Amino acid sequence: MRYKSTRGGVTDVSFKDAVIMGLAHDGGLLLPESIPDVAPLLDSWVDLSYQQLAHEVMSCFVDDIEDEILKEIIERSYSTFKHSDITPVRRVGGVHILELFHGPTLAFKDVALQFLGNVFEHILNERNTRANILGATSGDTGSAAIAGIRGKQNIHIYIMFPQGKTSATQELQMTSVLDENVHNIAIEGNFDDCQSLMKTIFSDLTFKEQYGLAAVNSVNWARILAQIVYYFSAYYQLGRPAEFDVCVPTGNFGNIFAGYVAKKMGLPIRRLILATNENDILARFFNSGIYERGLISFTHSPAMDIQIASNFERYLYYQCDQNTEKLTEFMLAFAETGKAVQLFNSDRFDESILAAAVSNDETIATIRRYHAQHSYLVDPHTAVGLTVAEQFKDTSVPLLSLSTAHPAKFDNVMTLALPDVAVNHPTLDALNGLPTRKTVLPVSIEAVKALIRE
Ligand SMILES: *Cc1c(COP(=O)(O)O)cnc(C)c1O
Questions:
Q1: Residue 159: beta bridge partners?
Q2: Integer Cα distance of 199 and 215 in angstroms
Q3: What is the residue with the minimal CA distance to atom 14 of ligand 1?
Q4: Options 3.40.50.150, 3.40.640.10, 3.40.50.1100, 3.40.50.1950; CATH of 89-106+222-425
Q5: What is the Å distance from ligand 1's center to 250 Cα?
Q6: Using one digit for the tens of pLDDT, what is the confidence trace for 406-422?
Q7: Average pLDDT for residues 54-62, to the nearest whole number?
Q8: Which atom of ligand 1 is found nearest the CA of 140?
Q9: Which of ligand 1's atoms lies nearest the C-alpha of 109?
Q10: What is this structure's pTM?
Q11: DSSP string of 262-290, one letter each residue
Q12: Which residue has better confidence, 293 or 357?
């Protein structure tokens, strides 16, 4: 399979080059040249383990890694998961919940980043090169990136987070990783400072080249690829329904885009249901056709506090019939004015995606309801999904709702919702008292560069 950019300026790229490139050089996102139809194969995959299924699905998009090596990478990537089904489906009331949080950091990002870390290492070893991964986190997602890269050969990872502005647990999940290739940087500023440091350092092309700077952010195709697999796994766990609906709590549109690809591959998903928190740019788009930036608000589901969804361009590309010029125009208009319209003719509006936004109060109410009615604890992101799932539930097909984190990761919100309930997880409890390491730096490009040079 070859890859191309949504903006038309990059074509004929191999899978391995797409992984290393991350963002396409023309500013667009990489996509496979075609999406294979696997509907005729669904019968033959019925008895496969998660890892075998992952190999079948991924092989459709990867032809430049030897089969045995790809199998071994998949095995290693999911050996760190605590559940034998990797992503088990649980029936809770009238909904099927796909639990994506059984990886090492208890968040769904592990599914993608455990795989990406191993693929990255394999490619670098083969090419005899090194990479330095630089990332910024507000606290929640850095640990999954670190867990994916720790202990890998030829890769160092530098994660910047705002000093004193993450929760104690979030900081511990990162700073208790003592592998010599992991560098936690506490920046004496806020998350915006971390992000702008990252942007500025990446824009220094000489430095980027010299130190093999790379990112593992949510636009990397390998992450989407790994996420497609669990939609297939859920379909088999549901007993192969003729059709099913899937609800996805959404921030950067990465997780739900993987579902969109699975549907295009022939998996019988009837409707994708998109759930946002109060940062509702995507919900507004799907209900009005207008893509317009709003003000960021800080909510109980911080991993979804996003105004510009970095993966959304991939969806728009298909929605405008792969017309790279039209898409580029739309994206540039949006970048300039914060608003873009008229991508669709009204009769072409996408009816297979439903969307709604959820307030903080509704999030808390859903956490309480699932606890009271089903004795099931859901994290605030999962609760956003379940709130919208219930709004659109119709009994004619099974409804799957994606659970993206273990509730113990967000114990502050859980305490607010359920003050009398202890919410913990042995993996997090075990972090208390562990030795930690971090470097505190001022908001200074030179200081961060100096650390990487060392
Ligand atoms: C990242 C994240 C999300 C949002 O996923 P996207 O792929 O950005 O849509 C939802 N929940 C949790 C817990 C996350 O970490």
A1: 135, 184
A2: 11
A3: 303
A4: 3.40.50.1100
A5: 6
A6: 999 999 999 999 999 99
A7: 98
A8: 15
A9: 15
A10: 0.96
A11: HHHTT--EEEEEEEE-S--HHHHHHHHS-
A12: 357
